[in-house]
Specification:
Elements lengths: L1 E3 L1 H13 L4 H16 L4 E6 L3 H15 L3 E6 L8 H13 L1 E4 L7 H4 L4 E5 L11 H13 L3 E5 L21 E5 L2 E2 L8 H4 L1 E5 L13 E4 L1 H7 L14 E5 L7 H12 L4 E6 L1 H10 L4 E4 L14 E4 L7 H13 L4 E3 L1 H7 L13 E3 L3 H7 L8 H12 L2 E4 L5 E3 L4 E4 L11 H14 L4 H20 L7 H16 L5
The structure holds ligand LZDS7PUF and potassium ion.
The site of ligand LZDS7PUF has 28 residues, from helix 1, helix 2 and helix 3.
């Protein structure tokens, strides 16, 4: 399933038109996709706005009328301001359908309730602010007095399609038929009270989703098909020997959380290279791990023989950490995950990334990302993330709600994760998990996607009965979550 912000969706339509479709054709495809969701109703009222969302409603009205339905179109405003596609269908409707101009005719509760469904085609992703004037009055009337179903075309009118929050007035829908792609705001679980059930309908064309800038939602099905079964003759080395260069005398918990994330998500052998104080703690917290005391400077030889390396969690920002990070970045010859303090250090000398020959995954939160790639307030995060990944030839895991993952060519958001997981240490566990999947032989982009999805999925299971989810508990639940996914168990 694909997702887009308002700008990306506008660009998507422009891309389709550049590649030979006319707007009238696209509206025709859109109404084809809508038809099956409305065809079980007999008396249908369609609210039509001035743009192409309204045009979808008009084209749908014509098709419903042809199948013998009782259709009434309600429109507002001045024909001269209607979009090209809207006018094309509006003219056909004038000859064929009952058309009510709400500027001239008042609708009351009785008139409204004659319909067993109201289709909301007032505004889609083109709405830029709260619906005003008559639009607002009609929406208020329907919310208060209409007792049948409301089905929204593409997006409920009044909902900000980027954030999933209402502008002020919003038309509550029982169901929303999102055309082509999910609107980014629908990822916000709080939008569901306005959208009702969301169904995505792709247009029956050769959809160029990613080429045209939309991104994919990596979901449970994707994770289920990506996760590998363990082999009956498997042995520990087969599942990766991973080195975690994490922790310091100041931060002794972070490496434990990373190591737990790595081990519980299937790594064969985990070695933690750290400060003596961390190494002393390791057997008590995680006896499965091997501790290596950190000496400086780190040599190429010390970094040999690993399937994946993680650097950063709890490393501290002491001078020694700067030297260590640059040594590891220069000498690593296994796929590398860079997290937390190592990212802050990297941001002081981004040219270090230019000389790395191994695959690199960076896992910043927004603050860390901004330090590496300053961008203007209000910029599109997915565009910035993609540009960064391309410029530095890395995989970027940009943490936040529905974490963004991109290698500069493909772009994803992760369907799992929740607000109960906003707890210190959660990122350490995630970095360990991604390292583990790298070490198990997943391609770097897959390791990032799968690690992040499973992290969120485990958190989602735990959050069903918890206000907050602790990283250590999450790590310990990873094997159960992976069992559910790998066995395709219905929950
Ligand atoms: N690929 C696809 O899936 C397709 C989807 N389609 C549908 O097209 C709409 C988007 O159409 P668009 O014309 O871009 O936008 P809208 O119809 O949502 O609205 C545009 C008009 O709304 C006016 N506007 C904006 N904000 C307000 C407001 N607060 N109050 C009143 N009017 C407002 C805007 O006026 P401007 O002066 O700002 O230009 C426009 O007149 C999408 O949602 C799908 O339903 C197509 O079928 C193509 C393929
Ligand atoms: K709508």
């Amino acid at each position: 399933m694909y997702v887009g912000s308002q700008n990306q969706l506008k660009a998507y339509d422009a891309y389709l038109i550049e590649h030979g479709y006319t707007i009238e054709q696209l509206i025709d495809y859109a109404s084809d996709a809508l038809l099956k969701h409305i065809s079980s109703y007999q008396h249908i009222g369609i609210l039509v706005g001035p743009g192409n969302n309204g045009a979808d409603g008009l084209s749908l009205g014509l098709k419903l009328d042809e199948t013998g339905k009782d259709v009434c179109i309600y429109y507002i405003g001045d024909y001269s301001r209607f979009s090209q596609g809207n006018r094309y269908y509006f003219n056909q409707c004038l000859d064929q359908l009952r058309m009510i101009n709400l500027d001239e005719t008042f609708i009351d509760e009785k008139e409204l309730n004659r319909h067993d469904v109201i289709v909301d085609a007032f505004f889609g992703f083109g709405l830029n602010s709260a619906p005003r004037g008559l639009y607002k009055s009609v929406i208020d009337l329907i919310n208060l007095s209409y007792r049948g179903d409301v089905i929204a075309v593409d997006c409920p009118t009044g909902l900000n399609c980027n954030t999933g929050t209402p502008y002020s007035t919003v038309l509550f829908a029982q169901k929303t038929i999102a055309l082509s792609a999910l609107k980014e705001g629908f990822l916000n679980p709080e939008s569901q009270v306005f959208t009702g059930d969301v169904v995505v309908e792709e247009l029956a064309i050769d959809n160029p989703f990613m080429e045209a800038g939309l991104y994919a939602l990596f979901d449970k099905q994707d994770a289920q098909s990506m996760i590998k079964q363990r082999r009956y003759d498997g042995y520990k080395n087969m599942y990766g020997i991973d080195l975690l260069i994490c922790g310091s005398h100041q931060y002794r918990g972070a490496p434990i959380l990373s190591a737990k994330g790595a081990l519980y998500s299937g790594a064969g052998i985990i070695k933690v290279m750290s400060d003596e104080k961390v190494i002393d703690l390791l057997p008590l917290s995680l006896p499965e791990c091997i501790g290596i005391s950190r000496y400086k400077p780190i040599t190429k030889e010390e970094l040999q023989g690993y399937d994946a390396i993680l650097i950063g969690c709890g490393l501290s920002l002491e001078k020694e950490s700067y030297l260590l990070t640059s040594d590891v970045l220069v000498n690593a010859n296994s796929p590398l995950v860079i997290d937390a303090d190592a990212l802050t250090i990297l941001s002081t000398n981004m040219s270090l990334l230019k000389d790395i020959s191994v695959p690199v995954i960076l896992t910043p939160h927004i603050g860390e990302f901004k330090r590496m790639w300053p961008y203007e307030e209000g910029a599109d995060l997915m565009e910035e993330a993609t540009a960064f990944a391309k410029a530095y030839d890395v995989i970027l895991v940009l943490k936040g709600p529905h974490t963004i993952i991109t290698d500069g060519t493909e772009h994803y958001r992760i369907a799992s994760g929740n607000k109960a997981m906003a707890v210190g240490g959660m990122g350490d566990t995630l970095a360990g998990m991604i390292t583990s999947f790298l070490g198990q032989g997943y391609a770097p982009l897959s390791a990032a996607l799968l690690g992040t999805y499973i992290h969120g999925f485990t958190g989602d299971i735990l959050a069903r009965k918890r206000y907050t989810v602790m990283p250590e508990l999450l790590a310990e639940q990873i094997p159960c979550a992976m069992y559910i996914l790998s066995q395709k168990i219905e929950e």
